[in-house]
Amino acid sequence: xxxxxxxxxxxxxxxxxxxxxxxxxxxxxxxxxxxxxxxxxxxxxxxxxxxxxxxxxxxxxxxxxxxxxxxxxxxxxxxxxxxxxxxxxxxxxxxxxxxxxxxxxxxxxxxxxxxxxxxxxxxxxxxxxxxxxxxxxxxxxxxxxxxxxxxxxxxxxxxxxxxxxxxxxxxxxxxxxxxxxxxxxxxxxxxxxxxxxxxxxxxxxxxxxxxxxxxxxxxxxxxxxxxxxxxxxxxxxxxxxxxxxxxxxxxxxxxxxxxxxxxxxxxxxxxxxxxxxxxxxxxxxxxxxxxxxxxxxxxxxxxxxxxxxxxxxxxxxxxxxxxxxxxxxxxxxxxxxxxxxxxxxxxxxxxxxxxxxxxxxxxxxxxxxxxxxxxxxxxxxxxxxxxxxxxxxxxxxxxxxxxxxxxxxxxxxxxxxxxxxxxxxxxxxxxxxxxxxxxxxxxxxxxxxxxxxxxxxxxxxxxxxxxxxxxxxxxxxxxxxxxxxxxxxxxxxxxxxxxxxxxxxxxxxxxxxxxxxxxxxxxxxxxxxxxxxxxxxxxxxxxxxxx
Length: 547
Known about the structure:
Blueprint: H1 3-20, H2 24-38, H3 52-63, H4 67-76, E1 81-86, H5 93-102, E2 106-108, E3 114-115, E4 124-126, H6 134-143, H7 160-175, H8 179-192, E5 197-202, H9 205-213, H10 222-229, H11 233-254, E6 269-277, H12 282-298, E7 302-308, H13 314-333, E8 338-343, H14 359-365, E9 371-374, H15 384-394, E10 397-400, H16 402-409, H17 418-424, E11 428-430, H18 435-438, H19 442-451, H20 457-469, H21 499-505, H22 507-524, H23 538-546
Parallel strand pairs: 1-5, 5-6, 6-7, 7-8, 8-9, 9-10, 10-11
Antiparallel strand pairs: 2-3, 2-4
């Protein structure tokens, strides 16, 4: 390094140090690092320019200890798909109170549930105007969500999982009247988080009614029960499709789609995973599942089937193996229907230890799940290393819900199996689960992945790509094998002749191509290179110092 160059840098740093009150010993140390690292300037060539991806990764590394800066960065990052997001649970308590007020519903002053009129005081008060009585309003928010549980201010006598699962009964009466708007709000939140695709776990009134008809039936002979249900399926499926036509139209109107005032939410693709409830009587669960498989075969908006509700519920524990057999039975009759199953949403002490040893394995090996929701108890599974190896080999994806797992199960930080899955080569995605109930969002899930799980930009980018590659969107993937690897032959280059026509035929690949363009634009916005003391550049040091 030349003396003139060194003096220029020292002068710059000294002036800044004087203004900031920084000791000159630090300045001297900086100059020494510059001189030792640089070597003779006549022998040095300019440093190779960092790629946009490397600049973006370096920027995240610089802000990793500042949650506010991380939030801004991660909010803007394109995030691909949210593959584990439940209708109803995605909406916030304030939405339910607004709908309850508009519909003339009441609030119980005992349970703080929404109830039907008449509103007879003092046991019931009108939802309209509730915001003017803040203690009642606040207690309703708490009844509809898990607000405060992670901050240590939740009810000490109520567990996170009991509060969480109780919320659905609390706000349920308001949801049923506003399903289309609820879905539109879910799309709006996805757009705000730069999520381009949502697979929404959802039910259907027709499926519930069909299940109720079979509630007392004998489930010991699945073939006989299916023969009884099959003739009822076409009408039930037609009814559900008509309902969803209405929901989609309501949602599009709410988001302004097709108008000059269309919201960014209109660009968020949404598909549905029909979700059966595992805490019902066996024949009722089977009827719901049979309906779900038939619906997914008939309506392209429904891309798969799921099963949910508290996995630790005594009925769910008792019937778990039977449910997996039911799903395998129906999968054999509907081989094209995809499966994402809640499995392993359990932890030590919540159930007997023996019930931690097989749920994920049975979901994968018996039911044939392509994705696992939660998967928290993997370390307790019998021969967990062999199961992990199978999931990695077969690319069985785990949907990770960091906030939900922390609130409901108390599992977070180093206790969470995210790192175990990643080290085993099992694909993972980040998802929101019930972002309204948890009062979280997708950006917060990514922030937690960085601050609690130690993930960095390359890890996040892989997860973003996973979210579309392992989605149940129809068509081929943009990637030949694993996301981020070799591209499909038709689109090795996005400008290749025929690529556009191929994308038009493959919905999944088209969504992935859009994501790649969004990622490129996002990375192009992070042009600052990190300070490198080995390169004697006054311009680069001045830029870094100004930052």
